[in-house]
């Protein structure tokens, strides 16, 4: 990995097997260990395979989402995504086969089939996603056969999502399972004709706090239409039209690169990576899209939009930079695309990033991350609470950007926190999202509450 070297003394109190998953930027070079299964007993911040599939598919608004497993797995409801809908609210209902000991011993296929019958009768959905869980993977229920039979019986798409947790200790496997399920849904059936259009698909966008609608507004002003987002505010019908698009935008690379590659191979749809978090990233992404269309009018409207919006962001940035310059920040998020955006935004505020990492980063992404950061920054893959706590304290962090699992750890240590998780209800995308982010960084970093917490603990300024 470029510009990184393994930590030595700093990791003495950490789990020995985790040493290669923690590096620090510097002159020596060493590759970070990533994309492997989580270490048993390390209490990884990652979620399970089932969760990886669920967060990708759940925003399909008019589908039924059925969890085949014990009732506890169904705690991952629509609330694990702050996704909003402009139409159907079916996705907000959570269904489970509620497997008991008897089902584990004798099999749950009949129970699954009965649940599908009941759901079709009551809701008449256009599609049903059936998620397998750890127990199902262990006892060997054939959900593929059950789903195939139900599809033939009812004439709708009943799609198995093979997301049994014991398949792997890596949430990324769940992303792949979701991608395969989407691919089954969108692949035209024999006799189907998909009309080619100049619209684009937006992959890896989940409409958290209405973020898809923000980008949709920008593109519409440029003269470009979104066919469907995968999967924020999407419908089954719209998803099935996705093979007719001329371009795929990929925002969350971890969850959607596999599907983007399959659509390029099988449907001839090229893709480009985009990032709409932060003003500069937004401007660059809009310009990449305009360049693809190669239309002078689209390019002119794109530049007018950027010129109008980016000035306000820079004005707010300069105002708060004076208050935030030199503050020390940590970042731990799900995927690398989000980490890149937050690094850039915090650096623009003059803040020093001393710790960063992800749940699902890849080798090349960590190499790029290392090039963005100053010497001495700790980079960590698939962290656990003990490691995060250690570095938050040692690096004297003022503020952390992360998800729901990191929030309470930061607060208990007296560290400000910025919520960038997938369950948030407030959008942070685009130019207006950049302004919200800057103000949130200031509000939490400079809150007087941390001073009183330090005094309570007997610390000093």
From TrEMBL:
Q: Which family does it belong to?
A: Belongs to the NifD/NifK/NifE/NifN family.
What task does this protein carry out? This protein may play a role in the biosynthesis of the prosthetic group of nitrogenase (FeMo cofactor).
Can the keyword Transferase be found in this entry's annotation? Answer: no
The taxonomy runs: Archaea, Methanobacteriati, Methanobacteriota, Stenosarchaea group, Methanomicrobia
What name does this protein carry? Nitrogenase iron-molybdenum cofactor biosynthesis protein NifE
Q: What biological-process GO terms show up in the record?
A: protein-containing complex assembly
Molecular function terms, GO-annotated: nitrogenase activity
Pfam families cross-referenced by the UniProt entry: Oxidored_nitro
Q: Which organism is it from?
A: Methanolacinia petrolearia (strain DSM 11571 / OCM 486 / SEBR 4847) (Methanoplanus petrolearius)
Which InterPro entries has this protein been placed in?
A: Nase/OxRdtase_comp1 (IPR000510), Nase_comp1_CS (IPR000318), NifE (IPR005973), NifE-like (IPR049939)
Which PANTHER family does this UniProt record tie to the protein? NITROGENASE IRON-MOLYBDENUM COFACTOR BIOSYNTHESIS PROTEIN NIFE (PTHR42956)
């Amino acid at each position: 990995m470029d510009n990184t070297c393994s930590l030595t003394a700093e990791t003495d109190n950490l789990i020995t097997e985790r040493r290669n998953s923690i590096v620090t930027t510097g002159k020596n070079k060493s590759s970070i260990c990533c994309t492997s299964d989580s270490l048993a007993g390390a209490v990884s911040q990652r979620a399970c395979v089932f969760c990886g599939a669920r967060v990708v598919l759940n925003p399909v608004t008019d589908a039924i989402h059925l969890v085949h497993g014990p009732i506890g797995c169904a705690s991952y409801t629509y609330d694990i995504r702050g996704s909003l809908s402009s139409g159907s609210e079916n996705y907000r209902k959570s269904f489970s086969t509620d497997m008991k000991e008897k089902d584990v011993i004798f099999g749950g296929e009949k129970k699954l089939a009965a649940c599908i019958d009941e759901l079709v009768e009551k809701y008449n959905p256009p599609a049903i996603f059936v998620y397998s869980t750890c127990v199902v993977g262990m006892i060997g229920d054939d959900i593929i056969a059950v789903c195939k039979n139900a599809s033939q019986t009812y004439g709708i798409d009943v799609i198995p999502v093979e997301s049994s947790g014991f398949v792997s200790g890596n949430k990324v496997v769940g992303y792949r399972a979701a991608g395969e399920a989407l691919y089954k849904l969108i692949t035209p059936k024999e006799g189907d004709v998909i009309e080619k259009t100049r619209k684009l698909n937006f992959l890896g966008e989940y409409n958290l706090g209405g973020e898809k609608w923000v980008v949709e507004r920008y593109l519409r002003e440029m003269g470009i239409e979104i066919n469907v987002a995968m999967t924020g505010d999407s419908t089954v019908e719209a998803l099935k039209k996705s093979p007719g698009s001329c371009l795929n935008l990929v925002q969350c690379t971890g969850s959607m690169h596999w599907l983007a590659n399959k659509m390029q191979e099988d449907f001839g749809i090229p893709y480009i990576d985009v990032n709409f978090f932060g003003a500069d990233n937004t401007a660059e992404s809009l310009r990449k899209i305009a360049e693809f269309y190669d239309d002078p009018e689209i390019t002119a409207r794109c530049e007018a939009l950027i010129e109008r919006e980016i000035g306000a962001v820079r004005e707010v940035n300069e105002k708060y930079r004076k208050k935030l310059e030199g503050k020390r920040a940590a970042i731990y998020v799900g995927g690398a695309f989000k980490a890149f955006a937050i690094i850039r935004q915090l650096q623009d505020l003059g803040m020093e990033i001393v710790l960063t990492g992800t749940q699902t980063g890849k080798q090349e992404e960590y190499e790029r991350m290392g090039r963005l950061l100053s010497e001495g920054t700790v980079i960590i893959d698939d962290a656990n609470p003990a490691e995060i706590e250690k570095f938050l304290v040692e690096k004297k962090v003022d503020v952390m950007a992360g998800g729901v699992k990191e929030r309470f750890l930061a607060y208990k240590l007296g560290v400000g926190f910025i919520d960038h998780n997938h369950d948030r209800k407030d959008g942070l995308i685009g130019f207006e999202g950049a302004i919200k982010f800057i103000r949130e960084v200031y509000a939490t970093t400079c809150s007087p509450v941390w001073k009183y917490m330090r005094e309570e603990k007997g610390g000093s300024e």
